[in-house]
Amino acid sequence: MLGPAQARKPARMSPRPPIVGIPCDHRMVGHHPFHMAGEKYITAVRDAAEAVPLLIPVLEPSLATADLLESCDGFLFTGSPSNVSPQHYGGVAPREGVLLDEKRDSTTLPLLKAAIAAGAPVLCLCRGFQELNVAFGGTLHQHVQEVEGRFDHREDRDADLDVQYGPAHEVRVVEGGLLSRLVVLKHFKVNSLHAQGIDRLAPPLHADAIAPDGTIEAVSLPGAKSFLLGLQWHPEWRWRDNDVSRAIFAGFGAALRDRTQS
Asked: Are 82 and 127 in contact (CB under 8 A)?
């Protein structure tokens, strides 16, 4: 039988899982606007980072950044078929037919800088990687395949998804960045499904991995308060089957749990 002191002792609560905010794309489906994110990103947050995914609508006006920082422990900025609008980095007007998503830009660009300044763990993939570079003052090539000496980094859209997301080219890991601390391999192959790419690297960022044609494929921020990694490729695709992808999401998840328990 418990004594009075023992009976009053509260039960020890297990720490709650971290919450990861995922800004959505804004799309028209028929005549109606939708806010959406790819399931592969959502399930990677849940299963690979062991966190709770929370979709963030990209409303106009945008949700208050301070409210998002209060509600989320970290953030994942996803890939998308849309381009970052060139007005945000002084680029030329996009060609006809290029998909933009300025509602997403209005939410993600200020949120990125604020989240990193606040010490929230942040993982940026594909479009998110490009947003990261633009948010910190860098520029983009809108059509990397047309830059002299560069590969065609786009996928074959007529191929099966396993082919589109299959290994496309090698990257070389550069010492001194977060990626070099997360992965053992110094050369490995990645998938490639993008037309935009980094032109001028934002001054505060470090190039963590480079493709053989000179395209920057990964970046981090020296001195960042927490986990901050941008990748041009898609580690969320079949992450269980890839040692590098597992290491990246494990590092992201560990940083999230550190933040919720501190």
From this structure: yes
